[in-house]
Amino acid sequence: MYGTRPESRPAVRAARDASRERPLQLAAELVTATWTSQWIAGLRRTGLLTNREDPERTIRDAAAVLRALTDAQGAPLAQSRVELDARLLGDAHALDRDRLLHQVVLRGLAAAAGIPIPDGTREREQLWANHGIEPDLLSRTCLVWRVRVGTGEPAGRRLSDAAT
Q1: CA-to-CA distance for 134 and 77, rounded, in angstroms?
Q2: For strand 133-134 and strand 79-80, is the pairing parallel, antiparallel, or unpaired?
Q3: What's the start-to-end Cα distance of the chain, in Å?
Q4: Residue 56 and residue 52: Cα distance in Å, rounded?
Q5: In angstroms, how far is CA 7 from the centroid of its own chain?
Q6: Selection from 93, 42, 88 nearest residue 63 by Cα
Q7: Distance (Å, rounded) from C-alpha 57 to C-alpha 61?
Q8: Residue 116 DSSP symbol
């Protein structure tokens, strides 16, 4: 016989739906704060974890970070995101802005604060700062005074002209 084996479409759909819900159920088990339902609803609504590699690990890591930042008694201990990553997750770049974990944790922090997800960089940094996490000072934009670029390229000329 040629072709593919017949599949039960309802069974395939049910299995897919169950795989989407599994990380969200894990999130509800690991983070038991009052704002958890809002965080999970946002993750479900956006499909942020859908078709991702190992979403359960992402939720476990996010839960560890969120518990550390939101369960703290008293004033939060000031630290950088890199220090937090290395201490909790063993990877200094786990919460880099381009990582899925950063987006999941940011949504959790916004839910914990009762605010919408921040749009801009300054708002995101402020949200992290409210939980004791300082911005990454190594990769920040800086102003430079009178730096000349010694190339004949258009960008170099433009930067040299701006320095005067």
Answers
A1: 10
A2: parallel
A3: 78
A4: 10
A5: 37
A6: 88
A7: 6
A8: P
**Which residue, among 56, 69, 53, has the nearest Cα to 28 in the 3D structure?**
56
Task: Check: CB of residue 51 under 8 Å from CB of residue 119.
Answer: no
Q: What is the pLDDT of residues 107-125, one digit of tens each?
A: 999 999 999 999 988 899 9
Strand partners, 73: none
Residue 141 has pLDDT above 60, yes or no: no
| Closest to 54 in 3D by CA, of 89, 19, 103, 82 | 19
Average pLDDT over residues 130-146: 68
DSSP structural state of residue 131: T
Question: What is the C-alpha separation between 48 and 19, in angstroms, rounded?
Answer: 13
Residue pair 83/77 in contact by the 8 Å Cβ criterion: no
Strand pairing partners for 80?
134
Question: In this predicted model, what pLDDT tens digit does every residue of 53-83 receive, in sequence order?
Answer: 899 999 999 999 999 888 766 556 678 888 8
Beta carbons of 19 and 25 less than 8 angstroms apart: no
- Report the SS3 class of residue 138: coil
The dihedral built from the CA positions of residue 44, 50, 54 and 58, taken in this order, carries a sign that is negative
54-64 in b/e burial notation, b at 16+ Cβ within 10 A?
Answer: ebeebbebbbb
Query: Are the C-beta atoms of residues 77 and 32 closer than 8 Å to each other?
Result: no
